Amino acid sequence: MNMDHLKLFTNLAETLNFSQTAKNLHLTQPAVTQAINSLEQEVGFKLFKRTKRQVSLTKGGHVLYTNVQPLLIKFTTAVETARVAQERDVATLSIGYTETYYELQQFPKLIKEFNKLHPASHVYLENFDHNLLRQHLLNQECDVTFPMQDSIQDDQNIAFIPLITGRFACIVPTSNPLANHTTIDITELADQTLIFLNANQCPPRQFAIQQLLQKACPNANYLYSDSIMLDHTLVKGGLGIAIMVTAASRADAPDFRVIPLDYPGWRPYTYGMAVLKPIDDPVLKQFIACAQRIFH
Fold it and tell me: PANTHER family attached here (predicted)?
């Protein structure tokens, strides 16, 4: 059975309009009619009732649509999953990252620089939360990842290459009076709405600072998000103040300010690259060198 004919059938079952389906699928109307006729001959019954004024599904057509639609969705998902696996397999380098503002600024520069050295290279980027980065690296599903140091520091099989050092900061919408401060003390957040990352998205020190804030600011309101980028979206919408390391944000944004957070015992926080030991691959070594030049 022709998969394209089934996809066309499901589209027509939803539009009940031959002209609209032809437009949706970039076909001519006679081509749509021919495909439906061919499918009806193959299944052995009419799928649509057609008059000059309207098109409707027959009972058999309705049953076929109800059963075929989820199968097509599963098929499409399977093809995409297979394509991702193939792209990862043939990639010169497979890179895992968390899609922070800083990475979105620096990665295009890094890939461009690396491609100058390896014009035929194929770089595959994959987005994960921090807790998955290490596992994908250990499973050799990624050649290199870009984590916070505390995400991998206890693993003897992983080499960490520092790139930049930051500290925890408040990402404050410009409409908030705290946006005028040069630093923010933890006590000044007591009555604010604070935006945290969900626990499964947090590297260890991010999780620890969130717990510290909850204890220090019991009357604050709390929102939780699934990503650094969503944190920034909530801040831009004026919904609260996000807490994250400076390396995850950007200092030149027009609608929020990145202001260092003061709290007892604060210390620098390092972001970098993680690779499996030993680092023998010359292409990987050159990629690391490119990253050290771009990120510094």
Answer: HCA OPERON TRANSCRIPTIONAL ACTIVATOR HCAR, TRANSCRIPTIONAL DUAL REGULATOR HCAR-RELATED
